[in-house]
Amino acid sequence: MSRRLPPLVALRAFDAVARLGGTRRAGDDLAVSHTVISRHLRNLEAWAGVRLIARDGRGLVLTPEGRRYHERISRAFDLIAEATEELSPRGGQGELRLFCAPGLAVRWLSRRLSALEEALAGVEIVIQPADRSPDFAKGEADAEIAFNPVPVAGITRLDLLTPRFFPVASPLFVERRGPFAGPADIAAAPLIHEESREQWRQWLALAGLDPVPALHGPRLWHADAAVEAALQGQGIALANGLLVGDDLAAGRLVEVMPSDIRLGTYCLRAPAATWDGRVMTRLRRWLASALASSPS
After folding, report:
1. What is the set of domains in the chain, with CATH numbers?
2. How far from the centroid of its chain's Cα atoms is residue 124's Cα?
3. What is the gyration radius of the CA atoms in the chain, in angstroms?
4. What is the distance between the alpha carbons of residues 7 and 41, in angstroms, rounded to a whole number?
5. I want to staple 245 with a disulfide (CB 3.0 to 4.6 A). Which of 97, 241, 272, 293 is the partner?
6. So what's the pLDDT on residue 33?
7. Cα dihedral 185/201/164/243 (nearest 10)
């Protein structure tokens, strides 16, 4: 008995609109224009003879028939994704190639590898600390944990954490060079920078320093190198609880000045086509749990 199936490209468009709430967001998710999405929706409704999408004052909404239909087809897409993962020629449940911001990879993720391996049992984990985003189209990575990345069409993003950033130094450095009563004192001290001096400039401005003077000090490119230099008493670095929580608890570093300044967000990104697969779903759940229990 042959199956009566609608055009699958139209079905994917309908699923994306139902999940994301609009034709433009669905188009970005599937890497096509919103006009193409609208055409697929019209074709699907014509094929089914049922109205699936309606407009209200807020935009597109599912009709009652559309909601019932989407509940069932979304489960079907989940089954297809699971079956495809099991078909992987790499064996077992495959491999997770994860690009990660270097500081987070070295100072947070690497210390939790055993917990991550347990959460992704059967999956071979490959972590690449990188200060650039991977080319997902060329298969450079399956997912990425990045800080303030540029949006890319067809790539789904989940914001993980917007941490507080604060200045840290070794206790001996503070004893010798302190006290640091405010941002002007910090700006005059030896500062340790990452790729550029912009992060420190932005932090000092948000801390109330106006104008921010010309800043000096070595640039070490990666947060893990900057934190290591601070641990060695070389100056003051900017960090967050994920990067230095263990060092603060052990007394190896101290927070130089109390503040509540946020400079950006860590997020998880992956191709939309694999976002709801089993491995990515387990990774998202583990990250949520691990971050919730980490100092931030």
Report:
1. 8-86 (1.10.10.10), 95-159+266-289 (3.40.190.10), 164-262 (3.40.190.10)
2. 21
3. 24
4. 11
5. 241
6. 84
7. -90
